[in-house]
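Researcher: Checking consistency across runs. Here is Murein biosynthesis integral membrane protein MurJ again:
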Amino acid sequence: MAGLGRASAMIAAGTLVSRVTGLLRSVALVAAIGGFGKASDAFGIANQLPNYVFQVLSAGLITAVLVPQIVKWSARDDGGKAHLSKLFTLGTVVLFAVTLIATVAAPWLVRLMGANWPEYQVALATAFAYWCLPQVFFYGMFALIGETLNARRVFGPYAWAPIVNNVVTIVGFGAFILIFGGERSAVDQWDSTTIAVMGAITTFGIVAQTVVLVFFWRRTGLSLRPDFGWRGLGLGEVRNLAGWSFGMLLVGLVVSTVQQRVISGASGDNASAMVWFNAWLVFMLPYSIIVMSIGTPYFTQLSEHASAGRDKEVRADIGRSIRTLGVLIVIAAAALMVAAVPASRIFTGSEEEAVAAGPVLIGFLVGLVPLAVQFVVQRTFYAYGDTRTPFFFTVFQAAIAIGLALLMPYVASLGFLTATIALSQSLSSLAQVILATWLLRRRLGPLGMVENVWALIRFTLAAIPAGAVALVVYILNGGNDGWMAAAGVSGIPGKLLAAVGTGVLGVVAVVVYVAILALFRAPELRTATGLVRRLVGR
C-alpha cells in the first residue's frame, strides 16, 4: 500500500498542476476566441474532434487491451519486450491510418456535429479541423507510451507531461492575442492566417507533450524496435478485445455527434459547444485529481490480482476504492454545484454569460459520483480482459443519452438546451453504472455493494448541509450579482475574483462536511484524511 500511496501522490500532484494549468489554458483560449459565439463554437468543435477519438482509445482500446497485456507479459523472461515491440508497431500503424482517415473526413465530421450551423460557420470549423485532427496520432502515441509507463509502475510522467502542452499553448494564445487581438468570436474576424496560427498552436502543444514523455521511456527498462511480424503477438485475443473497444469508440462518437448536433441549434447568443467543453473541463478537474490519481494505481494492483485469479482480493479492491473515492468525490460535486456560476465566470466574458453557463456545469456534476463508481467497475472488467461486456452496457448508456438528447429540444428553451443535455448525460451514466455493477456481480459474486451504496448515501447526507452553508455564504456576498460573479471590482479582474470566490465556497463546504463526518465518527473520514495527509506530505 505504501507503493500505491507514493504513486497516488505523484499522480495527484501532476494531475493537479496539469489541471490548473489546463484551466489557465482555457482562460487564455477564451480570451483569444471568446466563450460564446459562432466562431468560438466552430473552433470548439474542431479542436474537440481529435479528443473524442483519444478519450475512447485511452479508456477503451489502450487501457482495456494494453495495460492488462503488459502486466501479463511483464512476467515473461524478456519483460514483454518482444510482444511490446510488435504491439507498438501495430499501434503506430493503426493510429496513422485512423488519423489520415479522420483528417480526410474533416468536412463530413464537422457537418455531423454542426447540423444546425450556417454554411459559413461550417466552413470555418472545417478549416480549423484540418489543423486539429492530426492531433489524433500524437494523442494516441501519448496514451500508448503513458499507459505503458503506468503498467510498468512508472506513474508520474503520464500525469505531468500535459503541463508542457498547457504551457506551450498558453504562451501561444498570449502571442496570438498580442499580434491579432482577442475575443474573436465572430466568423468574419478569421482569415487563413489566423486560422493557421491558432490551429498550429493547439496541435504543436500535443506534439510537445508526446515528445517530452518519450524521454522517460528508459525507466521502463524496455528497448523496443519496429516489428511487423505480428503472428506471435496473439492477435486473435487482441483483435477480439480491440474489436469490442472500437465498437465502444463508434458508440461514443454517435452519442457525441447526436448531442453536438442538438446543441448546435443554440450556437450564437446561448450556451453551446464552447460552453459545453469548458464546463466539462471544470467537471473533470475533481474527477481527474481524485478518481484518476487514486484509481490508476488501484487499477494496476487490481489487474495483478485479476491476472492471478485472486477474485477475493479483486472484490476487496473494488469496495475499498469506491469508498475511498466516494468520500472525496461527493463533497467535490456538492461544492462545485454551489460555485457553478463563479466557476463558469472564469471561462466566460461577462457575469451574464456565467449565469447562462452555470446550469451546464451543474448538469454534468449530477453524474460525477456515478462516473467515479463506473471507473472502478469498468476497469475491473478490463482487468479480466473483458471488453465485450463494457461494450454492451455502453450501448445501453448511449441509447438513453441519445433518446434524452433528441427529446430535449421539445422540452427546453434554447437558453437551457445545453444544460438539459448535460443533465441527460449524467442520468444515462447513472443508469449505466447500475447495469454494469449488476453484470459484474454476476461474474464475481457478491461485491458488498450494499455497504458501498450506504457509504455514498451517508456522504451525500453530510454534503447537503455543507453545500447549504456554502450557498448561504454565496448569497450573503451578493449571489449572482455579487463580487464572485462580477465583471471586476476596483481594478481586480472578474475572472480572478471568480476563482477566489470558487475557492472560498469550496473551503466552506469542505470544512462543514468534514465536521459532520467527524461528529458522526464516519470510519471513511480517517481513511480519507490519512490519504490526503500522505499525498500532501509526499
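Researcher: Does this match what you'd expect to see?
Model: One thing to look at in this run: The mean pLDDT is 84.
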